[in-house]
Amino acid sequence: MAEHPPFAVTVDIALFTIRDGGLCTLVVRRGEAPYRGRWALPGGFVRIDEDLDRAAERELREETGLARGFHLEQLRTYGAPKRDPRMRTVTVAYLALAPGLTSPVAGTDAADAEWRPVAGLLAATPGLAFDHGRILADALERARSKLEYTPLAAAFCPPEFTIGELRRVYETVWGTTLDPRNFHRKASKTPGFLVPTGGTTTRDGGRPAQLYRRGTLEVLNPPLARGVA
Amino acid sequence: MAEHPPFAVTVDIALFTIRDGGLCTLVVRRGEAPYRGRWALPGGFVRIDEDLDRAAERELREETGLARGFHLEQLRTYGAPKRDPRMRTVTVAYLALAPGLTSPVAGTDAADAEWRPVAGLLAATPGLAFDHGRILADALERARSKLEYTPLAAAFCPPEFTIGELRRVYETVWGTTLDPRNFHRKASKTPGFLVPTGGTTTRDGGRPAQLYRRGTLEVLNPPLARGVA
DNA sequence: TCAAAAGTGTTAATTCTACACCCATGT
DNA sequence: ACATGGGTGTAGAATTAACACTTTTGA
Known about the structure:
- The structure is a homodimer.
- Helix content of chain A is 26%, strand content 27%.
- Chain A is an alpha+beta fold.
- In chain A, strands 1, 2, 3, 4, 5, 6 and 7 form a 7-stranded mixed β-sheet that branches. A two-stranded antiparallel ribbon of chain A has the order 8-9.
- The mean pLDDT of chain A is 94.
- The interface between A and B is medium-sized, with 32 and 32 residues.
- Chain B binds a DNA duplex through residues 162-164, 179-182, 184-186, 188, 202, 204-210, 222, 226-229.
């Protein structure tokens, strides 16, 4: 049993951000067959001497110009035999989150990259190229559930943010509305979740709000979904 | 950019069960270099026309003789460039859970397969072959956290089980002790979690206990960790 | 009759939810 | 002065945690 059939290994990235109050994903328009003209998730081949995470970082940088400040984690791997009609590929999908003010596009490959609302991408027919619709749906589900029990929502915010901004992240991703007062209490009273920077801002209007940075807490227990309304 | 370096793709399986009140993993002793004589997770190459999940199922069947009744889910993918000194491999790791009474071993490859306590495997030096120690640790963490918010603990039990048996699964995997009375209330009152079969058993000693099957519930909210002591 | 595990009841402490209400700013 | 979001207080409902107590079996 020393057969080891050759596979091509790629990484694909579902990168989310919040723009105009909606959850958006970076997609690239395919210029070649198969799926020519359709939207696809950014991605590419893993190099022969490259770790998977490193490959995902590189692709993300190539497509967006982003070098830091984003969250990147492995989502899952997709390897149906016919997922790419050209050859036998396995793709390791990644979930990435970035703050909103990201300059849309900058990279080399990214000539046709655009931010698109997630809901539209998932509902459209025909959908994304390859199995990218499935990947995007899985990524969305992962993002939603990780917001519940990790401090990951801050990855959608600039380095310093207000509790109100953080709340709007949850509301956007979950598609719910939360009680601002209970959310404020919960967020500010959970030890290790947020670190006050001392600064304030009025960029959201109204009374000046305290600015915070992400704390060191890794897991929220109880989950943030509770006690928030 | 039509380079696509060839990779070998494998699946490796961290299969957990509970034996003698302890959490155990199925490991195989390596008969060849590299890592000759060391324990490794069971696994093998993905076939050229085979889906990843299918490959994992096949390997599991080959190593254990188990055909059904186990839980199997993708864990994550490991692809460090030097993880196998012989060639460039990427392995898609799976987490599997099986009931305790599994006949130890039966398959073809599985000549040297054994159930070993997880704690010992993780603590031993030298550890498992390749990056399997890491995979095992990640699998354990996944199993622990999935017990919190899914009805997955039942995968460690026979088709019909008592609430006490289910509680001992949680206690074993989490390494904690739970209040039997609160656990009973929480488990039996959570809608959709358990379905009474009508039968009873005294196999655990004491007063006869109701038998249950897994319900249809997919996600526990609140998590079972809460309200249980 | 006793030990062992199942199963029910009860209570105090905590947390959750839903609001009323005040605060500090820009317009 | 007023609209807008920030932030605190509080009270009833629900949940959690701790433990007393009864039930039903096998030995």
